[in-house]
Amino acid sequence: MHSIITYETNVAYSKLKSIPIESLIKFQETKDVQNIPQENRRAWIGVRYREIRIVSKSGKIRDISAVGWRGNSVFAYYDFDEQRYHGSYH
């Protein structure tokens, strides 16, 4: 089970890093998913595809400004405040 979660995290993280920063910024500013290239909008997390989204500003980790994917165990996102990518599983 742990290896599946690690794999899903790595795939989501890699997909996120392949999206141009400019596209992530436009998505965050406009909330229009059309700013993200279609082939990079979804990642397989858990039992279904999940679409990229704006991560809650008051999420579990801390108050952040970010976009990415979050499942029950997978979390991959780009943090605009720190200007860096994060990928984690728990």
Give a quick precis of the structure.
Helices cover 29% and strands 31% of the residues. The protein has two helices and six strands, in the order H-H-E-E-E-E-E-E.
What does this structure look like?
With 90 residues, the chain is of the alpha+beta class. It contains 2 helices and 6 strands, in the order H-H-E-E-E-E-E-E. The protein has helices spanning 2-17, 21-30; strands spanning 42-45, 48-51, 53-55, 66-70, 74-79, 84-89. The longest helix is centred in the first third of the chain and has 16 residues, at 2-17. The radius of gyration is 12 Å and the shape is globular.
The poorly predicted ranges are: none
Count the DSSP helices: 2
Would you list the SSEs in sequence order as H and E? HHEEEEEE
Radius of gyration, in angstroms, nearest whole number: 12 Å
Q: Indicate the proportion of strand residues.
A: 25-35%
| Strand line-up across the major sheet | 3-4-5-6
Keywords:
90 residues; alpha+beta; two-stranded antiparallel ribbon; 29% helix; 31% strand
Helix-strand blueprint:
Blueprint: H1 2-17, H2 21-30, E1 42-45, E2 48-51, E3 53-55, E4 66-70, E5 74-79, E6 84-89
Antiparallel strand pairs: 1-2, 3-4, 4-5, 5-6
